[in-house]
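New to this. Please check this fold:
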Amino acid sequence: MNHDERFVFIAEWYDPNASLFRRYELLFYPGDGSVEMHDVKNHRTFLKRTKYDDLHLEDLFIGNKVNVFSRQLVLIDYGDQYTARQLGSRKEKTLALIKPDAVSKAGEIIEMINKAGFTITKLKMMMLSRKEAMDFHVDHQSRPFLNELIQFITSGPVIAMEVLREDAVCEWKRLLGPANSGMARTDAPESLRALFGTDGIRNAVHGPDSFASAAREMELFFPSSGVCGPANTAKFTNCTCCIIKPHAISEGLLGKILMAIRDAGFEISAMQMFSMDRVNVEEFYEVYKGVVSEYNEMVTEVCSGPCVAMEIQQSNPAKTFREFCGPADPVLDRSVFILISFHQLFQFFFDLLVDPSSLKEGGL
């Protein structure tokens, strides 16, 4: 292996003391696993070439967060043409946002996201404050329609997702279609905005137009600085909890399940993707310990990957949603296959709400 071969990325680090982003040129030498960093603004070396075993070539793709000597960096762009040519087809992350007018169609949109080859690695239903909406629309501050944008984006919940695939920024923009939904129906009739949008503002979905914009917008919705980000939409009244298990997420069934829940007359009032460790899951399933023989397998399943927790609302939801789930044992009755299959996809707990502070947010 050529020890002088190097890959160069532009990376950003949020400096909490100065409350600003600092930009670096990050060089990675795959021959010996060493790294080097240069301060872009001050044109000086920040870190001399040093061997660093915790960074690997597979970690280097646009949108990813990497830790270099305890400093978390977001890779926002390629640093030279060689890196872009060699690694340009590698996976990237971007923000996928479902706007208030299309939250009721989240199942259909997520189904199209999965079919387009994206993997959802983070997901949360949120309610934006006016300040957060202003930060989100910072590029439109001088536009005459700014107030209408702010009023719309704060008029109801949004669903923010981090999505992953090769060339994610461009492919997500292609799936969105033109910003004006009327134009989208003419120029890109199969796009998300053509199918679910109304006009140029109520256009169902949003996506960043560059690597740098994607990094900044994901920091707004899924901050790495320790703050919580926009508030979740949980109401904690007249509700029950539903968990979509990891095997259903990995099989791309999230969209279908959301559609089925909605079509059965239930409202999803809050939703978030989590990865749970074994201690969390054992506590979550404590009521089943020593009661069902499958307890260990149940715990192992929920630990195996990301799951999605939802707050479900309907009058008397504990009874009706459990009936909707169907029998827990799939061999009880083949005639209720549809209900049984839904129960296999998510385990319903009628007496327990998820405590977000005890869980690890995010998927992959």
